[in-house]
């Protein structure tokens, strides 16, 4: 079968090359085939590859022809095309065997089609030759532009980087066949970004071509173009944008924009007070803009500067207190530098920026100032009242020099005058108090709110005003059978005075005891002495107790001497000479005395409590005599007035006329007639209400009487039922006045008061008739 090969385009024009088939007789002939074609001889078929260009715009494009060697041209054979793409992408002329492409081909979608061909004899309907495969390859054309797949591009590079520094590499790709000429060979170029950047043509590497300063411009947009076919005419291209940011380096030092700052501080401000801020500016950012402030010149060493790392401000603080009267203005110089500086960038920070600060001290009214932080005075004890102790002095530190007044807080022993002179108001005793801690207050006369205080310590000096005495009470015993020279007691002494030297005491017997005493004393020269018997034998019955006078002198100037009496009991001792028996007897005597005292105290207590109980009992009985009806309810009569009247049974009720009378007197008045009383009450019931002044006065009197007299009953409870009510036409229904009767009185007028008083009129009328 003959075939024709469609070779790849040459300058856009397809070249058709015949591929001759050979019969069995002609297979011996050597056929010259084009370079690149492939032959396969099988059963009379000669198959090859077909090449068809992509991007065909015609409706049908001839790809090649299949022809069997047995075909003699009489149209007795039918050619069929089978496989993927047969009928949809490729068709075949059944008579001639010509193959056509009926739709546009894209190599990037599919570059190879594998089909099968078959030849059938029309007359018999059977295949002349078996099926055989062949291949159609789509040849490439430059129909795809380069594309950058990793967009967007962004890079960061330090500012002031040298030329040639690598920034970033961009890469484009071309979908065309890289083995088909230069369709996929790319070339990079820079469309925007000169003169600071450059790009390598074959690799797409972007490099710095000139130094850049971030403070002038901190980011750049660079546009890179990629062309295929090595940039030849007809090449396709693609572009991308690259954002290049400059990172900061510390190439700028901080600078003060103000060469002079003016600040003020009060002389009353404590140390550590913030008096103002200063500010330097750095064009760098982040860590490179962190600053440190410091004092460069301050001869007074009065101020300091600390850095606020959040705001990058310098805070001027007071290091020492200032005094307006001493110095009212200061001048200091401050400097600033970066906290982090790379050694490579030290050339930008050779000289620090400085500024001058003028500080004005403001005058305030200050409290008085004492000349010393504290005072210590000394005075001897027993000095008379008004004795001089010492002088304190305070002054007004302000220019007006206000006079000062002095005072002592909570002291009854010392006094101070306006000159600051401290004197005593009482005699001092060192043994009571050896030191006095005073608080002296100084107050300005022109401004009493300005005060200050200072401690004053007064030491009371000792004088020898206390004679020595026994250090304790001694219970001394001597046996009847004691021999001469026997030690019966060791004594010692104390002195409440303070001695410059160590205390030393001298012990002696009085003159009388020295000549006639039965005892003697020996001074041990160590502030103790021993008492010894001066005879043999003592008699308990004749002389049970001895009293000897011992003189004790101190070493003070002048020396003081005291006489101390030592009591010595004579006792009957056992054979061993022990004085325990005497001590036991003495203890029993002491205990007996204490028991008697306790008994006496108990008896006195019983008498006192008995008197108290008797007094209370008498008071209770007195209450019962004054009010025998205490167990009854005082308001019982009041509760019985709910009915229309009690008649003659109300003889014990209060005379309500007394409550209505104009004169408030406790004495009983002469009784009125019954009719006149009732008429008076009837008129008063129409005129007097619960707010009557007379009624209130009576109630207040009763209330005061009840409050002052614990035995008085609660008369104030009567006020609830004292009247019927203001404006009652029927009048009072109370029968309080029923006790006041007149036998000659006529009660016929009660019939005129209405049906409610009919029963009362009958009762009074019948009572009068019976009495008559």
Characterize the structure shown.
Pfam families: CADH_Y-type_LIR (PF01049), Cadherin (PF00028). GO terms for molecular function: beta-catenin binding; cadherin binding; calcium ion binding. One of its GO terms (cellular component) is catenin complex. The chain has 772 residues and is mainly β. The chain contains seven helices and 45 strands. The strands form 14 sheets. It has a four-stranded mixed beta sheet, with no helix packed on it. A four-stranded mixed beta sheet has the order 13-20-19-16, with no helix packed on it. The longest helix is centred in the C-terminal third of the chain and has 47 residues, at 580-626. The termini are far apart. Residues 1-47, 587-592, 627-643, 656-675, 677-689, 715-723 and 737-742 have low confidence and may be disordered.
In short:
The protein is 14% helix and 35% strand. It is mainly beta and 772 residues long.
Fold blueprint:
Layout: E1 3-10, E2 13-19, E3 40-42, E4 45-47, E5 49-53, E6 61-65, E7 77-83, E8 90-92, E9 98-101, E10 112-121, E11 127-139, E12 147-148, E13 153-158, E14 166-169, E15 172-173, E16 187-192, E17 197-199, E18 205-208, E19 219-227, E20 237-247, E21 255-256, E22 260-266, E23 274-281, E24 291-297, E25 303-308, E26 313-318, E27 329-338, E28 353-362, E29 369-370, E30 375-380, E31 388-391, E32 394-395, E33 404-408, E34 414-416, E35 421-424, E36 435-444, E37 451-461, E38 469-470, E39 476-479, E40 487-494, E41 506-509, H1 511-516, E42 519-523, E43 528-533, E44 545-553, E45 561-571, H2 580-626, H3 636-639, H4 656-660, H5 674-687, H6 693-708, H7 758-771
Parallel strand pairs: 5-11, 13-20, 22-28, 30-37, 39-45
Antiparallel strand pairs: 1-2, 3-4, 6-9, 7-10, 8-9, 10-11, 12-15, 14-18, 16-19, 17-18, 19-20, 21-23, 23-26, 24-27, 25-26, 27-28, 29-32, 31-35, 33-36, 34-35, 36-37, 38-40, 40-43, 41-44, 42-43, 44-45
Subcellular location: Cell membrane
Protein name: Cadherin 19
Signal peptide: 1-21
């Amino acid at each position: 079968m003959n075939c024709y090969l469609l070779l790849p385009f040459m300058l856009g024009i397809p070249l058709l090359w015949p591929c001759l088939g050979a019969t069995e007789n002609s297979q011996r002939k050597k056929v010259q085939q084009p370079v690149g074609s492939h032959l396969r001889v099988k059963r009379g078929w000669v198959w090859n590859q077909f090449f068809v260009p992509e991007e065909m715009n015609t409706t049908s494009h001839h790809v090649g022809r299949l022809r069997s060697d047995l075909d003699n041209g009489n149209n007795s054979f039918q050619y069929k095309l089978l496989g993927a793409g047969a009928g949809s992408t490729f068709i075949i002329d059944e008579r001639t065997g010509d193959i056509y492409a009926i739709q546009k081909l894209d190599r990037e979608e599919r570059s190879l089609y594998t089909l099968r061909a078959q030849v059938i004899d029309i007359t018999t309907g059977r295949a002349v030759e078996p099926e055989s495969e062949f291949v159609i390859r789509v040849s490439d054309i430059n129909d795809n532009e380069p594309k950058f797949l990793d967009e967007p591009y962004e890079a960061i590079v330090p500012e002031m980087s040298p030329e040639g520094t690598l920034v970033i590499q961009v890469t484009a790709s071309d979908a065309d066949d890289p083995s088909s000429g230069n369709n996929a060979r790319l070339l990079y170029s820079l469309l925007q970004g000169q003169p600071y950047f450059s790009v390598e043509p074959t690799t797409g590497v972007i490099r710095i071509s000139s130094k850049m300063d971030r403070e002038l411009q901190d980011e750049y947009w660079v546009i890179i173009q990629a062309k295929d076919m090595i940039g030849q005419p007809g090449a396709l291209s693609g572009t991308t944008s690259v954002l290049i940011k400059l990172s900061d380096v510390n190439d700028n030092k901080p600078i003060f924009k103000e060469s002079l700052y003016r600040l003020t501080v009060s002389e009353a401000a404590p140390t550590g007070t913030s008096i103002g801020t200063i500010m330097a500016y750095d064009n760098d950012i982040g860590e490179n803009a962190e600053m440190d402030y410091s004092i460069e010149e301050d001869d007074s060493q009065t101020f300091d500067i600390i850095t606020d790392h959040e705001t990058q401000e310098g805070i001027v603080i007071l290091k020492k207190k200032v005094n307006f009267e001493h110095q009212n203005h200061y001048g200091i110089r401050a400097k600033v530098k970066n906290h982090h500086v790379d050694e490579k960038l030290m050339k930008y920070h050779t000289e620090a920026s400085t500024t001058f600060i003028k500080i004005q001290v403001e005058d305030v009214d200050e409290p008085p100032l004492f000349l010393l932080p504290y005072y210590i005075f000394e005075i001897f004890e027993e000095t008379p009242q008004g004795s001089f102790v010492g002088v304190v002095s305070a002054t007004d530190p302000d220019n007006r020099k206000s006079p000062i007044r002095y005072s002592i807080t909570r002291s009854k022993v010392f006094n101070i005058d306006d000159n600051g002179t401290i004197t005593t108001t009482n005699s001092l005793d060192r043994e009571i108090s050896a030191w006095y801690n005073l608080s002296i207050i100084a107050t300005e006369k022109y401004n009493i709110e300005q005060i200050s205080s200072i401690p004053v310590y007064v030491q009371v000096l000792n004088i020898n005003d206390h004679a020595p005495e026994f250090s304790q009470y001694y219970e001394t015993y001597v046996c009847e059978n004691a021999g001469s020279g026997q030690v019966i007691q060791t004594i010692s002494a104390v002195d409440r005075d303070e001695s410059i030297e160590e205390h030393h005491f001298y012990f002696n017997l009085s003159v009388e005891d020295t000549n006639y005493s039965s005892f003697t004393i020996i001074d041990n020269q160590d502030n103790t002495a021993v008492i010894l018997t001066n005879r043999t034998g003592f008699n308990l019955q004749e002389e049970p107790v001895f009293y000897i006078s011992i003189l004790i002198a101190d070493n003070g100037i002048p020396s003081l001497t005291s006489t101390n009496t030592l009591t010595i009991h004579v006792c009957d001792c056992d054979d061993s000479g022990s004085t325990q028996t005497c001590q036991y007897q003495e203890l029993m005597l002491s205990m007996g005395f204490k028991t008697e005292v306790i008994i006496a105290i108990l008896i006195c207590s019983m008498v006192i409590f008995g008197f108290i109980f008797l007094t209370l009992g008498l008071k209770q009985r007195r209450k019962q005599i004054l009010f025998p009806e205490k167990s009854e309810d005082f308001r019982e009569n009041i509760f019985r007035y709910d009915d229309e009247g009690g008649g003659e049974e109300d003889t014990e009720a209060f005379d309500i006329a007394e409550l209505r009378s104009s004169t408030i007197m406790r004495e009983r008045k002469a009784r009125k007639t019954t009719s006149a009383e009732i008429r008076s009450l009837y008129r008063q019931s129409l005129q007097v209400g619960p707010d009557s002044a007379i009624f209130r006065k009576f109630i207040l009197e009763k209330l005061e009487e009840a409050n002052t007299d614990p035995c008085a009953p609660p008369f104030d409870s009567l006020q609830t039922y004292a009247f019927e009510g203001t404006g009652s036409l029927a009048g009072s229904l109370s029968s309080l006045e029923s006790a006041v009767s007149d036998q000659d009185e006529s009660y016929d007028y009660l019939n005129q008061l209405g049906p409610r008083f009919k029963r009362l009129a009958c009762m009074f009328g019948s009572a009068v008739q019976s009495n008559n």
